[in-house]
Amino acid sequence: TLLFFTLILYVWQICLLICSLPLVNNLPPSSFRSSSQLTSSHGPVFAKVNRREGAGGWSPLVSDRYQWLEVDLGRRTQITAVATQGRYGSSDWLTGYLLMFSDTGHNWRQHRQEDSLGAFPGNSNADTVVQYKLKQPVIARYLRLIPLDWNPTGRIGLRLEIYGCQYTSDVANFDGSSSLIYRLSVRPSWSEMEVISLKFKTLKNSGTLLHAEGQRDHSLTLVLEKGKLLLYHQQGVSSSSGGQLLVSLGSLLDDQHWHHVKLERLSTHLNLTVDKNTQQAHVPAELSHWDIHQPILSNRNFHGCLENLLYNDLNLLYLAKKNNHQVSAVGNVTFSCAEPVSVSATFTDAHSFLQLPGLTTWSSGVVSVALQFRTWNKAGLLLTFDLPQQEVMVWLYLSEARLRLQISGGSGLNDGQWHSVELNSREDQLSITVDKDEGATAHVSIPLPLTADSQLFFGGKKTRQSEGSQECRNPFRVFQGCMRLLTLDNQPVDLIKVQQRLLGNYSHLQIDMCGIIDRCSPSHCEHGGRCTQSWSTFHCNCSNSGYRGATCHSSTYEQSCEAYKHKGNTSGHYYIDVDGSGPIQPQLIYCDMTEDRTWMVIQHNNTELTPVHSSPERSQHSAHFDYAAGEEQLAAIVSQSEHCEQELSYHCRKSRLLNTPEGAPFSWWLGGPAPGQVQTYWGGALPDSRQCACGLQDNCLDSNHYCNCDADYDQWTNDSGLLTHKETLPVRSLVLGDIQRPGSEAAYRVGPLRCHGDKNFWNAAFFDKETSYLHFPTFHGELNADISFLFKTPSSSGVFLENLGIKDFIRIELSSSSEVVFSFDVGNGPLEVQVETHVPLNDNRWHSVRAERNVKEASLRVDKFPAATQEAPADGHIHLQLNSQLFIGGTASRQKGFLGCIRSLQLNGVTLDLEERAKITPGVRPGCPGHCSSYGSLCQNQGRCVERASGFSCDCGQSAYTGSFCHEEVSASFMSTTSITYTLKEPYELSRNSSALPSSIYSDTTLRGENISLGFRTSQSPALLLYISSFYREYLALLINQYKLHSSRDVEVLWSRVTNLADGRLHAVTIRRLADTVYVQIDQDAREDFNLTSDVEFNNIKSLILGRVQESDELEAELAGLASLGFTGCLSGVRFNSISPLKAALLHPDSPVIVTGPLVQSSCGSSSPADPYAAETTHSLSGTRNRLSQPLVNAIRSDSALIGGLIAVVIFVTVSALAIMARFICSRKETYRTQEVKAAQPEDGHEFPFSSQVDCESAPSQNQKEYFI
């Protein structure tokens, strides 16, 4: 094998040497032409490398960009390299130049290193030979070199060499009514691959190139339409339509240059290649063999030449030339290529114009001007001239792709196609005709008195501002495009004479070539983005594609439900783009975030329990499952998830399942990657075990079998369980076999595919040394590169990522504590994109970075700060060529290393496995803890962030809310008889039971403050919202009231501004007290602060009651009557300090809670606060934004256990005005009072540091006071 490859390499090197022969040295003097020469000693014939004859090389008369040197190689030649050298013994050399090639000496074609780069580097002195090897050989007879730049202290000087070898080919010319027909004399055996290849050139933009017929009237037709190649599939020879379009490829193919076409049939699909671009299409089996008709006779005839028409290895043009019987010619087919001469002019920029003098015949009043043009721009000046007798100017211009001369004609003229314009004036009648028969004609009655002294300006107008200075003025924007076939009074304008300065004048024109480029073919717009263009650039419309950016490269969606969750989103349907900027399309998937784990749920067409009835006519029942996600999405979801599962259940009565333990299985299922593998185990068992869950657990109905159903009992039983081995998921189809016997009954259920855990999202590495780094294979992002990751660091600088090439590179680094820099070089010099955040990034919190570089621009975004962008040069290098390893967290030089964590690093949608590489790399550790510092704010409503190995979770134990972020309200509808009583332990029980519930501490604590929050909706007034009692006949009550409660005791009244609370709408109330300071927040109204006349205490809480109070003996008459009425309405999010009685009643029945009367869980309306860290736009089924609702009141975040003394508080919330009545009673402590108060220690991070060292003696001992607020 080694010898074979060595031989291949040797042959390849020989071929390169053979086609690298110098071609210029032995050419005769007649092969050299130039635009001009300084003297006869500086003529083009002396421009030979390493020769010293004459003046030692060619120099033109004037050194400007209109000069050129041309070499005629005598015949079409394969050119592989070009070398330049300065003029001998001088300061004259080129530093940059353009290369043009032609077969005829006209219609030149510019050669480009890349799609957008045309300039070649030249010399730095007069002696060194600089060779440039063409990436792809060029077939041409003529080469023209155009100087761009030269030594600023010298002039243009050049010696030249061209390298290549002889080129031979078979060519045929078709005149529009001729064709070749090839028929197979013997049908060959079927083969995996068939190939048709050819080259063609034409000036016509329409014609049929190829027609291939298969079986049953199926055929393929390759058609040139408007300069593009279209491949059609047809059925039926009489079909009047073009058939089904399979592929459209190429553009501007009517330029009279050779274009390569290859059509490959590979089994069941076709590859169509045009020049360097390939597209694939599927074809029917009837086209397994072809008959070739080339080209067929039709109303879209082909005018042009074909070269090297090959069917597999058979040269059909050679056979036709030799009169082989298999190939027959129809019409006039000649075996040489007729080259019509068409001289074009390219208007390249704002300074381009062409000036032509008028004709002497115009004095008769008959004027005719005609031309053809092609452009991508919607606007531009075509023609202008003066009418001195009328002191006016005439402007013929394009505007919004229509032609205008105060009158308008034609439309859609910026499609890159050739369009003809004729302006005719006769007997005061002016007409403009666009595209002759296919276009439109407009008329106007105005004279056009042009004379021989008139000057016509095409594309722009020259004006003289001052002596010796000129500029082009164009009020209708520049015309950038090509013109050809200019005629004045039907006389062709000789543009070659214009080029030689023998006719008219011009500036900034490229004559004898059309330099138009289709920047949308191939399109750089990805993921279905629509490409539009102008002369100098293109634009991608990404609407409805699901992607964004200059080339529609970056996905607008997240890659998993986990990512959506950690942007603050809740359960719902979201578009998931599993590979980010990769080729897999986004898919709408349900994200279940109700648990700590975040599940992706992929439904299929039948997730219900489906009965199967016995039938003697069929021995099996089969079911196929079509999933909402495509095959690529399914495979990627399963691969990147930590765990996947799918329920598989079989309910049976006299219907056996796997026929265990020895028999062949009656039933099986297909699972795993498409098309799936046969599986003979059931839910809950292990792969290849031929068991059900009961067999694995050894508890089947019949111990002789491994499945319950295999016992074959005449009673209903089932085998159910979860399939959890990702290699066998998803379930694709199911076959049930034992259903034909009389009395057999069965039902099956295949649940949705459920997966959780995004391995990519939490994949992280910790760099604890500046000299440590991870390395990966070279990053390949030649045209599009997107890099995204998260980082956290205490350091103010460090390199995140670096990849080097010979000259190119790409790097992302933290340059300071508040600046990230994205730098790169693709051959145009280093460029930097910087984002200054103005806030520190070295705060050891997670920050996101996303960098993208494409052919149009580079961009950088950090967190949610505005993105910075840098446009790419219009005509520069576009390919990023790297060859070193990719370094993460440092550089190859071990300088400027990164300290900290990098997570979820993705390059072009592919996640790098940092953890696996970190396991074997010194100085780098896998994983990175400490997520709560960044994501803890997602836990709402007193939820507590809990660190996990991969991520975090929210502990809602101290919150009145539930859900993954403690964001879902817990609410219920109350009737007047509904009562919820949350009972706390009596004081003496604490000493007997050290393992009492946390809430029991309130039964023997002294509270110097309360923290109350709840939401309510009701139309009842008066109404009791919350009642709290103590063992010392003290109480606290929160009421809605329409009246002020009078009492014989001392009263202090403070009035609130809030009104109309019993209006059937949802309201939120927050009340906080610390010692003698109370504040009340109602909905979003301004907070109200109150000061009590003394410090008060409340101790030994007995119970918390919502709704009706069953025992109200301790209440005074007015309040007792109100308590007995109960509450009718809805309560939500009820929280007293750290106790949530409503949540305990609904979700934790084992809590010390008693419920009487009807209690229905319902939704009062969302009252949770909006998440300030919510995601950007997320997408649900409706396509609208899915955001957390706005808060009615800011939640209180405190987990403090409160302690207090002897106090009772009554709070009234009135409809006419909010009244908060605080009744403080400090009575003499009796037998219930223990000698020591067990105080609860406050937890960290609380707003109210309640004291546990309070003595009731500091409170009023005898005088009982009431405060009405």
Secondary-structure map with pairings?
Elements lengths: L1 H17 L2 E2 L9 E3 L34 E17 L8 E9 L6 E2 L9 E2 L8 E21 L8 E8 L4 E5 L3 E4 L10 E9 L4 E8 L4 E8 L2 E8 L8 E6 L9 E8 L2 E6 L2 E6 L8 E4 L8 E9 L2 E2 H6 L5 E4 L2 E2 L9 E4 L5 E5 L9 E8 L5 E8 L4 E8 L2 E3 L3 E2 L9 E8 L2 E6 L5 E5 L10 E4 L2 E6 L2 E5 L7 E8 L2 E2 L2 H5 L5 E3 L1 E3 L18 E4 L4 E4 L5 E2 L5 E2 L5 H5 L6 E5 L10 E6 L6 E4 L7 E4 L7 E4 L6 H10 E13 L14 E4 L5 E3 L13 H5 L19 E7 L7 E6 L8 E6 L2 E6 L5 E4 L6 E3 L8 E8 L5 E7 L4 E8 L2 E7 L5 E6 L10 E7 L3 E6 L5 E4 L14 E3 L11 E8 L2 E2 L2 H5 L5 E3 L5 H4 L8 E5 L2 E5 ...
Parallel strand pairs: 80-89
Antiparallel strand pairs: 1-8, 2-3, 3-7, 3-8, 4-5, 4-6, 4-7, 9-20, 9-23, 10-19, 10-22, 11-16, 11-20, 12-13, 12-19, 13-14, 14-15, 16-17, 17-18, 20-21, 24-37, 24-40, 25-34, 25-39, 26-31, 26-37, 27-28, 27-34, 28-29, 29-30, 31-32, 32-33, 35-36, 37-38, 41-42, 43-44, 45-46, 46-47, 47-56, 48-55, ...
Main location: membrane
Subcellular location: Membrane
Family: Belongs to the neurexin family.
Helical run tally:
11
Which shape, going by the Cα principal axes? Answer: elongated
User: Hey, roughly how much beta strand do the residues contain?
Assistant: 35-45%
* CATH topology description of the largest domain: Jelly Rolls
Number of strands: 91
Query: In angstroms, what is the radius of gyration?
Result: 43 Å
Domain F5/8 type C: 15-165
Domain Laminin G: 170-337, 343-514, 763-928, 985-1164
Signal peptide: 1-26
Pfam families: F5_F8_type_C (PF00754), Laminin_G_2 (PF02210)
